[in-house]
Design goal:
Layout: H1 3-17, H2 22-29, H3 33-40, H4 48-58, H5 63-70, H6 79-92, E1 95-100, H7 111-118, H8 125-137, H9 140-143, E2 151-157, H10 158-162, H11 168-181, E3 187-192, E4 206-210, E5 216-221, E6 226-229, H12 232-248, H13 252-266
Parallel strand pairs: 1-2, 2-3
Antiparallel strand pairs: 1-4, 4-5, 5-6
């Protein structure tokens, strides 16, 4: 039995003991009854706000939220769950620290870049349109002006700038967009040139996600899966690796000039 199934069984037991219905749980968590049923069966994973609402309704004290925080069951969920979980975390995070060695990070992509990236794999025009719109909508919180905008620190391997996605024009526009982002107070963009043999790079792209409760998660992706890590030792080691890489990368000013030079090569 997976952790998600065990947690769902706990919710169901607490609900029945309190003589509440799935519809009532759905009402306080802004979900329909069928979604609550899927959570109770372990097919879906609830987020923190949903669990907090149920804890108040079912009067379980701190037990339900404590279990939700402590259980590491994200690697056992389906693809939709990990993808949606990452999107929810982006909506709540206080800071993201990203290392990318393949493509421009999603939260920094232009519309034409996203379109070119997904067009070869999404044959349906409607599905492609929805994907592009969803990708861009996730950027709003980071691009909003004001002191509440989360920090987004990104270290880009030179390969992310040199790999042509779509066309030369798409890449020139993408580089221009990166330069605009460097002017925002909550964006820090650094580049690691390819001719830096002594720089120790992570073995795969990763994102360190800082949440409002003070906990950090490390997120990475394989070909068809998203992986969330919250083991303190592993998070600490990966954070140290990221910090060292940031120290060895070009400064923000040098990185902006590097991006500008690459952009001029595309024009």
């Amino acid at each position: 039995m997976t952790a998600a199934q065990l947690f769902g069984r706990f919710i169901k037991h607490a609900r029945e003991r309190a003589e509440r219905t799935q519809a009532e749980l759905g009402a306080v968590a802004h979900l329909d009854r069928s979604m609550v049923a899927r959570i109770e069966s372990g097919e879906r994973v609830p987020d923190r706000r949903q669990v907090a609402a149920w804890e108040d309704l079912l009067e379980t004290g701190d037990v339900m939220l404590d279990l939700w925080r402590d259980v590491d069951w994200y690697p056992t969920t389906t693809r939709n769950d990990w993808f949606e979980r990452r999107a929810r975390m982006d909506r709540e995070a206080t800071a993201l620290r990203v290392y990318q060695s393949q493509n421009i990070p999603g939260l920094m992509q232009t519309e034409s870049y996203v379109h070119a990236l997904y067009a070869p794999v999404l044959r349906s025009p409607d599905e492609l349109k929805r994907t592009v719109e969803a990708r861009l909508s996730r950027q709003d919180r980071f691009l909003a002006p004001g002191p509440e905008s989360p920090l987004l620190s990104a270290i880009l391997d030179e390969n992310t700038l040199r790999t042509v996605v779509g066309s030369q024009q798409v890449m020139a526009e993408q580089c221009s967009h990166l330069l605009e982002l460097t002017e925002l107070p909550n964006f820090v963009i650094q580049v690691v040139p390819a001719n830096s043999p002594l720089v120790v790079r992570p073995s795969a792209p990763l994102t360190i996600i800082s949440m409002p409760n003070g906990r950090d998660w490390v997120y990475s992706e394989s070909i068809d899966y998203g992986h969330f890590v919250n083991d303190p030792a592993r998070v600490r080691n990966l954070t140290r690796a990221y910090t060292r890489l940031a120290a060895d990368a070009l400064s923000t000013a040098e990185s902006a000039q590097f991006i500008r030079n690459v952009m001029e090569g595309y024009q």
